[in-house]
Amino acid sequence: MHQKTAMTLAMAGAMAALLAGCAQQPMATQAAPAAPAMAMMPIPPGGATGADWLTYHGTWRDYDFSSLTQINTDTVKNLQVAWTHDPGRDTRGLQSMPLAQDGVLYYSGSYSRVYALDGATGKVIWSFIPKLDETLIKRQTHSPYNRGVALGDGRVYVGTVDGRLIGLDQKTGKKLWDTKLVNSEKYTVGFTGAPVFLPGKNLVVIGSQGGEWPYRGPIFGVDVKTGKRKWTFLTVGPDAKSRATWGHQAWRTGGGGGWMPGTYDASTNTLWWGTANPAPLYDWSGPDWMHKGARPGANLYTTSVIALDPDNGKLKYYHQELPHDAWDFDSAVGEFVMIDENGKNLVVHPNKSGYIFVYNRGDASIVNVWRITENSNFVKDIDPHTGELIGRRDFTAGHVDPPLCPAIDGGVSFNSGAYDPRTNTYYKVGNEWCIDLTVVKTRPIVEPQAQLNIGADFHEVPAPGQTKMWGHVDARDPVTGKVKWSVNYREPPLASLLATAGNLLFVPDAEGVLHALDSQTGKELWSHSDGVGHDGGIMTYEANGKQYVAVVAGWGGMVTDGFPKMFGAPFTTMPRNTGVLTVYTLK
After folding, report:
1. Is residue 573 classed exposed, middle or buried when 0-12, 13-18 and 19+ CB atoms within 10 A define those classes?
2. What is this structure's pTM?
3. 292-312 per-position pLDDT tens digit
């Protein structure tokens, strides 16, 4: 099922030395052959941003695409830094997606710090620094990064790692309400992903961490005016049907969660969300996983795409992408690209395994499944019509041979792709790495508690028969997976992508270089170093009639910890726990 790359731009040449604190020149690229211009189709309503960037993906169709054209293939050579901002206390770097409305840029940093900045000058309009439980933060594994805020109804909404959702006045930054949703002191989980505001629903929704924690990963619907919780959906064991898929009553500590934002389909009044892996993360059941191991059964509703009724939080329909996920290839990647094609209403959702699932929006039935990664051996294939896993690998305790591909870091990760509706082109990062894995039997956990439940020792390695790990950015048909072009990078880019009607694709790479590619051919047109690796969001907006591109840079996330050993320089000397928001415009 894997599509062979039709054209590859090999990133070649030696790594340039770090400059000015860790900025470096981009690696030399081999020019792509000229490609014929793609036909430009109309942009569907709600399919592109304009002057504003109001949600995590720009619009609720999750395109990460802008109709702005001031910065284009002809003018991008004149792009330069307009201003920068450091939110301070950048533990684990910057991983958030900036938003913009009416010329004001809003973004969050570590510890759920929120800033409103003049979009043209970078001048601080207001800042909000919440008081957090510092003792709790020291106990947590993944904290204290924050991946974004939501805007709506005159408020800014931000989650915290100590289990709260806070509503701020959008004009002043004044705290309007502060709601405790998770007992983080007991479970050491909270919120790191961005909330989602639902227009016309008086509702903001946020999903908690889960996965490796022996918890039940709830998703919460909260009243935007009062901060009162309206409903809760437990991603593990919310009903008798799901509890029956967990042997030994393992649903009581099953993991789950929805750590990245979902999206809202107003046409069907449906909230789409992706859920995390079950716990323990690596099970020792072997092939008889329906009856043996720590959590026998399919383990609903983990590693699933779920569709909820936003009015009451009830489940409408779902698809479990990986039943009894034994690999940490969860479905919490927060990307649901809504496409209307040949009379069909579709949604495209990437899974951490590197497989991309295409669904009917009306019932989550499978339309197609295709794969973006070259290296994959956790299954032989996934049936493109039914979604059935074919030839899956399930592990008993002990060393796993050969290495598991892709790695726990994911064939794809939480960083967003981009979709150009004019050319029906989906741009997405694929990661080529594996892990040397030893599965261990963790002691049984029968009550939720404050500890990770992983069940394995592992480290990243190249695929069998290969000498290196790498990443690539592909341009593909989103439904069939057919390749239009592909560009290789020495290490996987960990940041989100941005496509624009200026026929540009922006790629922030792991070494700290922001690349602007011709979105129709993959040819690089411009690049600039932001001084430290990218591990977060990128977007574009307009202020005072001028287009700007904003990207966050900052190093220190969970995946980046292994980069020095995997790739050497410049990561061996790259500063950690730093961050900067860099905003570009035309000179």
Report:
1. exposed
2. 0.93
3. 998 999 999 999 999 999 999
